[in-house]
């Protein structure tokens, strides 16, 4: 089979289009003939070796490595303990590695079957970012219908799905932040009630004005830097802030006692942690599949490229030249 592999850390040029043996599914696993493969920022961080640094505390990867976290395709073989009836079914799967290939292994408890009419490319853009957004809102923030939500970096992959998921969960007001007017227009098009800039010191006051001084109940934090600290200026009493990322770095340390005055909660979400809770992964995947089927969630696909051009996909994503998810076609 054809696959993308890297044998050393570095830029997109380390990605090699190679022939590898077809993997064999073990107990509780299936082999998927892939039809569409999603590209994510964690794939880039793996390639750069960022997860192999001690300070990341996540264990890293072993070289050589086939990256990739999400696929759509058809099950062609099952491992021990898996119902053979799943063979031939179209599925959407989340995995820890190995998606950048014409055939990939997935745990049966981390995939869902799809309707035959489901769009493979659209669904392949969902699992990693969509599951992260769902877990942050439902499991970590315990979002309730009628609450107000602020999504930082709402034009990004996780943020754009979080806006739609929050609305589908019954949020009253959804705020999305973005750095440019064109990106804020994109956020409004996703269904956000308000799109605001986060690069001025006054943005928390704007959120307070639009919530009659109450602030928001939930914040999904993706930016870091000085924005992280500013979040608490517009987080309501009993509000929950969930750290999903920090594109500007961690910023200043938070004084824990700051949370006490308004009984606020600070949490974090890291997707691989939930691989130990596969029932939550499947719950999220089912929510996403149902949301797309009903039309309340619309995946944003920025580009579709051949698997052989994965290096270009990484370069485009790093330069932020594509708005939406990049999907790879393993058959081109």
TrEMBL record:
By its UniProt entry, which Pfam families does this protein fall under? ADH_N (PF08240), ADH_zinc_N (PF00107)
- Where is this protein localized, as stated in its record? Cytoplasm
SUPFAM superfamilies given in the database record: GroES-like (SSF50129), NAD(P)-binding Rossmann-fold domains (SSF51735)
Which spans of this chain does the record mark as coiled coil?
A: none
User: Which cellular component appears as one GO term in the record?
Assistant: cytoplasm
| Domain of life from the UniProt record | Bacteria
InterPro entries tied to this protein: ADH-like_C, ADH-like_N, ER, GroES-like_sf, NAD(P)-bd_dom_sf, Quin_OxRdtase/zeta-crystal_CS, Zinc-ADH_QOR/CCCR
Q: Which keywords belong to this entry?
A: Acetylation, Cytoplasm, NADP, RNA-binding
* Presence of the UniProt keyword RNA-binding in the record: yes
One molecular function GO term is: oxidoreductase activity
Q: Which Gene3D superfamilies match?
A: Medium-chain alcohol dehydrogenases, catalytic domain (3.90.180.10), NAD(P)-binding Rossmann-like Domain (3.40.50.720)
Q: Which PROSITE patterns match?
A: QOR_ZETA_CRYSTAL
Q: Which residues form the Enoyl reductase (ER) domain?
A: 10-328
Q: How does it assemble?
A: Homotetramer.
Protein name as it appears in the record: NADPH:quinone oxidoreductase family protein
Naturally occurring in which organism (per UniProt)? Pseudomonas bijieensis
